[in-house]
Design goal:
Length: 625
């Protein structure tokens, strides 16, 4: 019978503890805390129940060598203690600011908990360590503010155990050093060096990934786009933000001859088999970037999509030829006789010869042009995303620093404005029309609700109070014997200061449109002291709801019918009503699927964004977004 060595439970436990502790230390000493970890001195001492260790002002990490916890818990404890040191919580000047300037003074619970709150915030923002399983809500304020508050009011019970050492302080002070000891180390500076190296490493990695993608997908369009970033400031910011998708199958499926752009997605789709030179690709990419930045997809309004796309092509190509950007490819639209005209003026010119205008082609699809807008449905967008081949990432307007985001229109506006500001006149003069459009973009149009408010100010009268001796006024103290007239409201104020609302209640109406429109109307009318509005519901017939208090319009208006949409009877009802003022304005709320209207007084329309009325409106149209 062979003799077997008896197992030593104590030795097995010590080995298990050592392995867990070493594994936790490796997990904690990752950038940027690896610089701090290299300078730490380890020592051991027994701790109470629930305590793992503490850190001293001399950079000594004291842990319990006999306590076993999983590596993840050691990682959390080590990260927490190293951050206390690296954030300067044990620096002499920091301790002096919180009333602990005496080297013999012990760190109290208020200051220790305040520092633990700061450590948890920093660790969460940097993504190091592992948080507590149930971390309570952390209060606002820095270490000094929280220390003063908790010394006065006591530390909240929920925050007493957020440190790495249970309820005991995570930080302790060593006895005063001898005069011959070296100066204390600047631990925040050590952490700063680690942060700098971590950021530099991340940038190098990102640059390597981008270089790899560029090497895999290098083409004349990529070289053309890089030229804008390095050599043409006007469009450099746009070129850096937009993404090129060069996919032959996608170009064939969408019938893209040369290139097209989706302003909503920030992508330019090119046909790799277009056979253009680098100079010609510069022209084409600048063409598509200006389409996107000037938002030609939204600017056309009620105009024919194809003809407006052609008109914008004439204008943009004229600018690029004048600026000398690249070389105009054969087949693209250019007419020097249209120089200096706006896209709207060119559109009006094209409508005089529709047969010829319909034959004109853009660099994009024969059916949809080169400005891809509403037709880019979700299936098409899914195909686009699957074809990007490694270029996936946030949209350019979602790449703000610090997690901030900007609006899509704001991204294009800032890119063009910054490009215009940095464009050197020595690189060539810019067309006056382009400069004017960029300056116009810097002043975005007012929102629909702002324009509606101005319409109210202009057309809806306020109930002006009048003075009458029939009602006594308060006497002035200086002249108590002189009688003065008091203020009274006019008797027929409802008939004098009101407006009409013709509400489309057909089945195609969007409830969100009704809510936004009626809410805005109610708020503006209330602000102008308009007591009531005359409301008429219309679908297949007109339903007169009479006068409704403006504060009740938004939540008491009821939809009566769900049939077809015929609004003219409602208009006629208001115009012929004896109790509605002859000069009372009318607001028509509809989704555009209605009959042609003839309104003989001041009026306005509230429609969803992108909706088109089946007739030429004479009053303003506010597109609710």
């Amino acid at each position: 019978m062979s003799a077997r060595r008896a197992r030593n439970p104590a030795a097995d436990h010590a080995e298990r503890v050592l392995k867990a502790r070493n594994a936790g230390w490796k997990l904690a000493c990752v950038p940027p805390l690896d610089h701090v970890g290299r300078l730490i001195t380890h020592t051991y001492a027994p701790h109470g129940p629930g305590e793992l260790g503490h850190i001293t002002d001399d950079g000594i990490l004291v842990v319990d060598r006999h306590r076993y916890v999983p590596p993840a818990l050691w990682r959390r404890a080590y990260t927490h203690l190293l951050l206390h040191l690296a954030l300067g919580h044990l620096d002499a000047h920091t301790l002096a600011e919180v009333g602990l300037g005496d080297p013999a003074a012990e760190i109290d619970a208020a200051y220790n908990t305040a520092c633990c709150v700061a450590v948890h915030r920093f660790a969460a923002g940097l993504g190091v360590g592992t948080p507590l399983d149930e971390l309570p809500d952390l209060p606002a304020g820095d270490e000094r503010e929280l220390t003063e508050r908790w010394r006065r009011d006591g530390v909240p019970e929920a925050l007493r155990r957020i440190g790495a050492n249970g309820t005991s302080p995570c930080m302790r002070r060593e006895p005063p050093s001898a005069p011959t000891d070296p100066a204390p180390r600047d631990w925040p500076a050590v952490l700063a060096r680690g942060l700098v190296e971590m950021v530099a490493s991340s940038l190098d990695t990102a640059a390597g990934d981008r270089a790899g993608r560029t090497a895999r997908a290098e083409g004349p369009w990529d070289r053309a786009l890089s030229w804008f970033v390095s050599s043409y400031p006007l469009l450099g910011a746009l070129a850096a933000g937009l993404t090129i998708v060069a996919d032959l199958e996608l170009a064939r499926s969408w019938d893209i001859t040369i290139a097209a752009v989706s302003p909503e997605h920030g992508e330019i789709y090119v046909n790799p088999h277009a056979g253009l030179s680098t100079e010609e690709w510069r022209f084409v990419l600048a063409h598509e970037m200006l389409h996107a930045a000037l938002r030609h997809d939204r600017r056309r309004e009620h105009r024919d999509a194809h003809l407006f796309n052609v008109a914008c092509d004439y204008v943009i190509n004229g600018w690029l030829v004048e600026m000398g950007v690249g070389v105009l490819p054969d087949g693209l639209l250019y007419d020097p006789r249209l120089a200096g005209l706006s896209a709207e003026s060119v559109y009006d010119t094209l409508t005089t010869d529709l047969r010829r205008a319909r034959k004109l082609r853009t660099p994009g699809s024969r059916e949809h042009g080169d400005v891809l807008g509403e037709w880019l449905s979700e299936p098409a967008a899914a195909a686009r995303r699957s074809s990007r081949r490694g270029s996936a990432g946030p949209m350019p307007w979602e790449r703000g620093s610090g997690g901030s985001f900007v609006d899509l229109d704001a991204f294009y506006r800032r890119a063009l404005s910054a490009g215009l500001a940095y464009h050197d006149p020595g690189r060539g003069l810019l067309p006056a029309g382009l400069i004017e459009e960029i300056r116009t973009l810097e002043q975005p149009p007012p929102a629909w609700d702002v324009r509606l408010s101005r319409w109210f100010d202009e057309h809806v009268r306020r109930p002006e109070p009048v003075r009458s001796y029939a009602r006594a006024s308060r006497r002035q103290a200086s002249t108590p014997d002189i009688a003065r007239p008091g203020r009274i409201r006019p008797q027929d104020v409802d008939r004098l200061c009101t407006f009409g609302v013709v509400l489309d209640t057909s089945g195609s109406m969007d409830p969100s449109l009704l809510g936004k429109a009626l809410g805005a109307i109610a708020s503006y009318a209330t602000a102008r002291d308009v007591p009531a509005a005359r409301v008429v519901y219309c679908d297949a017939a007109a339903y007169d709801a009479g006068y409704l208090p403006v504060e009740d319009i938004a939540h008491k208006a009821r939809v009566r019918g769900r049939g077809g949409t015929v609004l003219q009877p409602g208009i006629r009802l208001l115009e012929s009503a004896d109790d509605f003022p002859a000069d009372g304005p009318i607001l028509v709320i509809t989704d555009g699927h209605c009959d042609a209207l003839r309104i003989r007084r001041e009026h306005a329309f509230l429609t969803p964004a992108g909706a088109r009325l089946p007739f030429t409106p004479r009053g303003p149209v506010f597109h609710v977004r």
